[in-house]
Design a protein that fits this description.
binds thymidine-5'-diphosphate, globular, alpha/beta, 12 strands, three-stranded mixed beta sheet, about 350 residues, binds nicotinamide-adenine-dinucleotide
Length: about 350
Amino acid sequence: MRKLLITGGAGFIGSHVVRRFVKQYPNDQIFNLDKLTYAGNLENLKDIDQSGNYHFIKGDITDTAFIQSLFETHQFDGVIHLAAESHVDRSISNPMEFVLTNVIGTVNLLNAARQIWKTAEGKRFYHVSTDEVYGQLGHEGKFVETTPYDPNSPYSASKASSDHFVRAYHHTYGLPVVISNCSNNYGSHHFPEKLIPLMINNILQKKPLPVYGKGENVRDWLFVEDHATAIDVIFHQGQLGDTYNIGGNNEWKNIDLVKHLCRLMDQKLNRAEGESEQLITYVTDRAGHDFRYAIDSSKLMSELHWKPSVTFEQGLEKTVDWYLANQEWLNHVTSGAYQQYYQNMYSNRS
Ligand code: NAD
Ligand code: TYD
């Protein structure tokens, strides 16, 4: 029996990873450590939270004494670290929160793992990271694992820093680590501050659809369940000390994606063709907005034989269907503090 710690398991991607590991590995004990910030929600895991191999721990990865005693008590065999502040716009308003959680929090976990793991045998520290550490691309090319780091936002700078610490602990102390850098995810349980769920929510509410700048920026989208599968494969089979890029080979200009979503939702909601598109509103661009991200995941595909299971059309339809069937979830997460967030973020943009 192995004990695995998953941090940030109540968040968007973390909840899909926890669900996968709880179901796929009934002989492993899965511990979900989460602070339950605005982005963490135990409702995301209500379908598996009665499973015998699932345990929830509420706690903060920046609390050094707590993290050390947690590792001493449970003697985890593996760590999959996803807990983070994850939204670029919030990092622009409040960068220090990102330094604390993403950098200090990660180093706390690395120190605790280093203290309890006397040998690397059977142990693994997996850091889940982003392609945004590589900076931005022009019209051509893709990020590969050897692309130099060149982060532009406070969010990507904090993730780049944490990646460097993870690698340094491998090089300096021999800590058994692996890192992945993934492109933009979409899917169920995605907090409606990010592009796709924000647009879905606003289309439902018939609210303006705020497109930054001219909507020409490009993102490479991956279905979240395919990210969870990739994490499973890399955690179990990835080379220690290595990095793997994960992406869906699925680039969209923001404006094309928003229009596509409008068409899909008009059909689902029996609205007139073109109705939701009229809600599109071009607003002031994000400061330092990265132009384009695109991931080359051929290393992961050829070495570990991973591939995405759905096309973008299938994944997006599943996602929209989930939001339509779970409007109560959407109502919960958009009540209270979200209203203030939305007001602050969007009121002076138009
Ligand atoms: P999210 O914001 O939905 O969830 C983050 C989770 O971390 C939440 O449950 C939150 O409560 C928890 N958390 C935050 N601070 C904490 C702290 N101090 N202690 C303990 N828990 C804390 O994020 P996400 O989109 O699911 O991203 C998860 C990870 O994947 C992040 O590390 C992110 O950088 C990375 N990533 C995200 C994407 C994406 O498209 N969303 C793409 C590539 C990589
Ligand atoms: P986001 O989902 O925040 O992810 P990231 O910035 O990490 O890539 O944004 C995706 C793209 O959508 C990005 O180019 C910014 C843009 N965007 C909008 O145009 N309007 C919005 O309201 C949001 C949240 C994002």
